[in-house]
Structure prediction request, 537 residues.
Amino acid sequence: MTPRVSWLDRTDETVRTLLTDMAADPNGQFESCAYETGRLVTLAPSLPGHDHRVRYLLGTQQADGRWGGPGDYDIVTTLSATEALLTERDRPGAHPGAAHGAERGLTALSRRLRSTTTLPDTVAVEIMVPALVADVNVHLARLGRRPLPLPDGTRAELLDAVRGAAAHGHALPDKLLHSLEIVGPAASGADFVRPVDERIVGCSPAATAAWLGDETIRRGEHPAVEYLLSVRHADGGVPVAAPLTLFERSWVLSTLADSGVPLTAPRPVLDELVTSLHAAFSDDGAAGGLGLPADVDDTATGLYALALLERPRSIECLWQFDRGDHFFCFPEERTASPTANAHVVQALGSALAAPPARSGLSGEPRSRAADALATVTRWLVERQDTDGSWSDKWHASPYYATACCAVALAQYGGEAARPAVDRAVDWVLTSERAPGTWGRWFGTREETAYAVRTLLRAGNPAGEVGEVLARAAARGAASLLHRWDDDTPHPPLWHDKDVYTPSRIVQTEIIAALYAAHTDPRTAGLLAEARTTAGIG
Prediction:
């Protein structure tokens, strides 16, 4: 009889494959995005694969005519896809389903935008929505139909200012290049745009297509056309951003190393990954991907990953993001990010915990780092919601933000942060859905992984509460094991111009949660019992 192989026995192979595939992937594993694909349908009909992109939009439209969701996460997506199908409908040889899909999208938008709507805090949403509404209304005006209204929370006047500046040839802030497609005709061939490697604008297929223009794309001679072709997926869609190698690699490596998961890839693979992290840094810090400006979130996560891998670099680049009481992601950002500041806590804490000879911190620099750590810890505690959770502009789920903040504060926040950490753990315990599942709208594997990690990495192991959280974490790990081989796509929960799914990062979070549950003495026995009951290895 062949002995049953446990999940833990397969971890080495799983991680080896994950890291080897990541090192060989120039773009990162990010699933198709209806918003970005819709913009290519409008802007780049001459790009090979156009019909496939149209079919992707039609195939992802929901029964009620919307795209995206749940909650108010359907507005940007449905606007983009509907406008794209309206444009496609008017083209010679249009896909026969475009007209019907566009009408269904218009019906959904009319209903949604005339009801109370709260726009989620996604990238540039305050100017992206009025840009898309204006484009849809141009189609409606030609048809003699009533225009769509603008929802609350938009800034049409800011959009007009941005478009006016671009039309006069004025350079836009670097962070706006990621959303260059909202500029309109002035984006095409704009002199103030300098594509990275002559191929990539703003780390975005849509921004790149807007700058190229369809006539240049039709000729097929520009190197950026190769970029647009390289990011298309088998389902016909394109990701919201690419390449995002620094973001993906720093996140995967820091999560695995922080959770104690052995990095079992061959040494040349690990060396290549570490070298690529170092290469992504400049004096300004690190950007998540090519064509994006440096930001504190990716800078801090990269620093933390390198510290855990014992290949540290100076934290000096963090100080340019220091606002005094917290760290900002970008200059003039609308809303501050608790999770980015949680990553700053980890970067500072790991540097302070290392010997000065390794971290380079001694004397005044060390005092500055210690003061900043205490300050950011206070700021994070003050930003905790009354129920014990955190929320954040980079993700739709409070379980993501709570895991980031609670784990960082438990590691490096000291006694001053302990009450906040305990409140976060209590919130996770009391918000469990069906046994072993957590989620904002419904139970998901990703959010369940965050819950399990929060309980085991931040929870106090002592007393009655320790037993309660161990049993909850074991239930969560058992539910993740039940669905380990489930290839159903993860719901898009991460914020960019639209919500998206970074599949390799989500897989890493699940691996980290399961590894913690298998190796933690509080849950290992309970999990073995759950595995036996469920008949899983």
In short: The mean pLDDT is 94.
